[in-house]
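Folding follows sequence. Below is one example:
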Amino acid sequence: MKKALLACVVAIAVAGGVRAGGDEGGDRDSRHFEFVPGTLVLARSVYVGTADLLVPGVTVLPPGCVAGNVQVPLIAGGTVSVAVTCSMPTNDASYPGVFFNSAADGHFGITSPIFLDNLTTDGHRLDSLAIPTDQIVTSFSSKSELSIHRSTDGRSLTFVGYHGGPGFPTAPNIFDVSNGNTPGLIDPTNAAVGQYYRSVAEVDAHGRVQVTDGNAYSGDNGRGAFKGGNGLYYMVGNDNSGNLSKKQVTTTVPGVELINSTGAELLYPGQAPPPVPPDINKIGDFEITQVTNPVTGKPYAADKAGKDNNYRGITIYNNTLYITKGSGGNGINTVYQVGAAGTLPTGDTATLAKVPITILPGFPATLASGVDSNGMPTPVSYPFGIWFANANTLYVCDEGDGNLVTPPVNGNVATPDAQAHAGIQKWVLTGGTWQLAYILNNGLNIGVPYSVPNYPSALNPATGGCRSITGRVRYDGAVDLFATTSTISPSGDQGADPNLLVRVTDLLDATTLPAGSGNHGWDDRIGVFRVIRAAKSGEVFRGVDFAPQDHDGPWE
């Protein structure tokens, strides 16, 4: 009966003139907003800046930056001097040229509003919820941000954004927030002096928003948050964009605080004020010294402290926390399990610090640097979002290496490695070890530039792989997968490129790449991606998941 009702609601919406990729669905009064059960929610942001926000060669970036040497307190006593440098923009703030400023300002980004679009599973927009910009915002070009996750009980969605600390406004068009400090953890070597919480927003089925502030991820960004069955928020992200050296991170007071305020984190909903060091609740700590170097037979040498915990993706399945690392030159890009199977980490700071983080058996264990201890190249993967179809089937979005090939080779701007390995990877658990069954990327057109209306053709993006992912298993054994794409382009920041929402159908029990027309619904050829929604110029798509609902019943 519920499925019939949903089909009726969707049919009425489509009959009323909503087209795939269009914006014809009106925004309902927020007092009466409700996500439609069984539909998708897409996290979207829109650039709202104007040219006059930046004056090339005049405006100081990051805002409030003061160049010079700062004295950083040492754990052993005394201080160490560290240089801080500022920059000036090369471009004004008109889109998309504004993002070429990232070459001059390594912290560059600009805050923007967040929208949660309620879509049918074919990409037709039913409605859109504008998240209040005085409560929380995102950073427009930060491609790793704004993944969304439906809670274990199915009743809400969560994501991470920015909420200003005392004296710092929460609003669009503020520069370099994503690399600024958090109010409770100030790195004096960080040129981005703004103070913004990395906050979790929880949105229920009626569009009501609750924001909980956190002090983790100072100097970088929180990527995702998942509300577990115990009612707690589990987060992933990265921190430390200041100027502390590898040695100084371990010998200075703010350096050690940063080490313990990154990676996987636990946050209590509604907690105020948020915890500050040393009571930020970091969960576990993975270091490459835990892994044996196959060349030497000895543990790998240590990286810069904290950077092995630069996590991007997160999910909870069967009450177990899983996370991914897929960027940065430190650590190992792979899929991890956090804690024991069937038990979500909880407890005080000391207890959480002891939680083990381990690579899932069978997943890659080579260094993210792409070279071994002899300087020989080794394979690197770039996992982001992950989704379990069942206990033995895991789909992993690989966003590709992001490298632009120029000039194009036969019209393709992606590397051969990205063309071969990016897309949705299907992993199957066999005998206690995860094995890569195959990679779904037919129809993604990896490396093939596409045009965007009202966007400079010289900057046309190409799909590089995928980032966020969700899915559903159907009664006939088919699996519908939905993902947002990563991009490759000559733009100043690929995170600002208009990207795509795509859909592909797989067969749950398949262990070799399936093909065929399927008979599983209209236009869902098995193993072939199709675009169900395309971002406009000045838009980006981030996370995707199924809509929350506030009553008991079967979940899609």
In short: The CA atoms of residues 226 and 252 lie 32 Å apart. The chain has one domain: 2-546. The chain has five helices and 27 strands. The two ends are 14 Å apart (CA to CA).
